[in-house]
TrEMBL record:
InterPro entries with a match to the protein in the record: MFS, MFS_Cyanate_Porter, MFS_dom, MFS_trans_sf
Gene3D superfamilies for the chain: MFS general substrate transporter like domains
Transmembrane stretches, start-end: 48-71, 83-100, 106-128, 140-162, 168-191, 212-235, 247-267, 279-298, 304-325, 345-363, 369-389
Protein name, as recorded: CP family cyanate transporter-like MFS transporter
Residues in Major facilitator superfamily (MFS) profile domain copies: 15-394
Molecular function terms from GO: transmembrane transporter activity
PROSITE patterns the record matches: MFS
Organism: Chromohalobacter marismortui
Key words, A-Z: Membrane, Transmembrane, Transmembrane helix
Amino acid sequence: MSARSVSPTAPLPAALWLVAFALAAINLRAPIVVVGPVLESIMQTLAIGAGVASLFTTGMILCFGVLSPLAPSVAARLGLDRAIALALGAIALGGLLRGIESLPVMLIGTFFAGLGIAFGNVFMPSLVKRDRPERIGQTMGLYTVVMGIGATLGAGTAVPLMNLSGSWSVPILMWSGIGVATTALWIWMAWRRPKASDDGQSTRITRLFKSRTAWTLTLFMGMQSLGFYTLQTWVPAVASAAGVPSAAAGGMLSIINLTTIPASYVIARLAARLHHHSLLVLGLCTLIALGLVGLWLAPTVSPTLWAILLGAGQGGCFSFALTMIVMRTRRANHAAMLSGMAQSLGYLMAAGGPLVFGALHGVTGDWRLSLWLLMALLSVQTVAGVMIGRPKLVTVREG
């Protein structure tokens, strides 16, 4: 495949493809996090409590788990490019509705945004498998980096934009506008390119249920997501309770998220060059384990170091999981099926992590048992990662 050809069905300039790819990726993270920093203002405007307000974020995670299995069939029916345009359109519509000061309208918007992001999460690895199979490491590295940048920008600009404009709707609507522009670009690309010949083949995720490799990757994805979202929720509280100053405890979360960006890119590039990956994923899980042990036994000694270790390990594991979705499948539609299975069940596993972690603290009065649970689940993730690191492709049951 030439440098300027990105599809076997129709040529497109590589630079244009990469711009469209990056814009799609940034829309898969920023709309999730932009609500959190302005959530208190939303609660005051709508006169709602924290429980109802949590639906704006947890509702999205549930959409990821419940709706992801539908994505491969949508791609089969519409074609991958049109399906991505549809997903981006749903994200843009969801953002528009979430910017309206009405609880029912915002909840409907959360559903549409969650639907679009759930589908987009599934489609993107399949797109890389189809269009850039010879540049998997480079492209998946770009994908994870851009998502990290999108999350950082979404969270970091929300409050300044709200303060500048005087309305919490402005940052949400701004990202909706970016989604509209990205949707228009993908509609144009989909119009240029016909549906690929294999888009409609073997789309039911249930055909993967007899594949041990598919289940192993799903388990790894689930444990990785559970650990990530749990720490995203509770790291500042755990560190503060152990004596870390509140500013430093909050800063740990920022350091974790910033560290995931370079780590995800490096691991995607490295994983694409390797044939065996078991030692790589073992090293990444070891970084997470060291960070957890430091957070538990000596949190005040070097909270920055523990945050860097956690960010590098978690960012690397996330990038590794997405890269394996591409590398462990034979065809683009198989990658979509595996992505749907791993992310659907993975996010369902992850949904209960922060709740259980916090509940154990409520029962025991400290964080030791909660951290022990996280270490135990990390051991499961490590075993699954070592197994998926073996060079074995996913088998798809045909017929």
